Automatic annotation (TrEMBL):
SUPFAM superfamilies: Acyl-CoA N-acyltransferases (Nat). Keywords: Acyltransferase, Transferase. CDD domains: NAT_SF. Residues 1-102 form the N-acetyltransferase domain. It is an enzyme of class 2 (transferase). Its EC number is 2.3.-.-. This is GNAT family N-acetyltransferase.
Amino acid sequence: MWAVYDENELIGELCAEMIDYQTVGISYVVNPHKRNQGYCKRMLKEMLELKELSCIHCFEAWVDSDNDPSIRCLEDTGFETTRTAGYYGLLKDAYFYGVHKIL
């Protein structure tokens, strides 16, 4: 997990959790006062370029179908929709996004 600060102000947090030896699930949150300023894209791009994660072939994220800013952020950083699913039996859909690194 990474916490991102601008001087003393928390911008957001990014978490990467190993699913298996080549796949990482990611989650993130951005301070509401700092949204729509490109911080999430920057956090994701920098995480994807980390040398420590160079052995990872796939990064995955779930996002609610009505979370347009998060969907745009994922798509702008190279993620693609790989499937949709009902969200824990509720009527709301969730999209599954993944980015696969080519070795």
